[in-house]
Amino acid sequence: MNHNDEDTDWIIEDEAESGTETALASKPEAPAGPAPWRILIVDDDVDVHVVTKFSLSNVCFQGRRLSFLHAYSGDEALAVLADNPDIALVLLDVIMETSDAGLTVARQIRETLHNQLVRIVLRTGQPGQALEHSIILDYDINDFWCKTDLTTRKLFTTVIASLRAYEGLQQAHQQTLQLRAELELARQLLAASKQPSSA
User: For a Cys staple, 119 with which of 26, 46, 70, 162, CB 3.0–4.6 Å?
Assistant: First the structure.
């Protein structure tokens, strides 16, 4: 039961339906805004999805709004992440179909999907069932919260900090890819220069 509500009108504007594109073709198009930050909410409690989305509905960072995707189990979360590699942040429940479903997802994000960029914030509604210190040490996550402690202000701070970290990592990743491409080009040019001329 995967829901992608990027077209929710109180988050971001609905895209024009395909049938209305022709009718609107004569009107000047408004410049497209920057793509929203994509956030995946993973929790088996529908109310958590609703409250989280409502709490973050007006958040804007670096001129970009937030767009939400939803998953209600660990397997569903991994499927959504596999299909959407540009997700910036996962708000991940620890206890879902099993007592450690969220921990399994966190590990598979890094080890199976090889996604090192997405920020992972674990949330639990049952503190004490998970040892926070060992989880933070043993899993590549970015924060860990008890849901009852995660007020709207703390959630906002956590989300902004996570998006800022994601943006920095993304920029570093792009620079690394560019440097690798330039290095490969330099190697090819060097190899070509060493070939004997066929004069």
Answer: 162
Size (the chain), residues: 199
Let me know the angle formed at the C-alpha of 162 by 157 and 165, rounded to the nearest 5 degrees.
125
Please provide the average confidence, as pLDDT, over all residues in the chain.
Answer: 84
DSSP strand pairing (37-42 vs 89-93): parallel
Tens of pLDDT along 84-137?
A: 999 999 999 999 999 999 999 999 999 999 999 999 999 998 766 546 778 888
How many degrees, rounded to 5, is the angle at CA 37 between CA 96 and CA 23? 115
Report the 3 state secondary structure along the chain.
Answer: CCEECCCCCCCCCCCCCHHHCCCCCCCCCCCCCCCCEEEEEECCCHHHHHHHHHHCCCCEECCEEEEEEEECCHHHHHHHHHHCCCCCEEEEECCCCCCCHHHHHHHHHHHCCCCCCCEEEEEECCCCCCCHHHHHHHCCCCEEEECCCCCHHHHHHHHHHHHHHHHHHHHHHHHHHHHHHHHHHHHHHHHHHCCCCCC
Backbone angles phi, psi at 101, to 5 degrees: -60, -40
How much is the pTM? 0.75
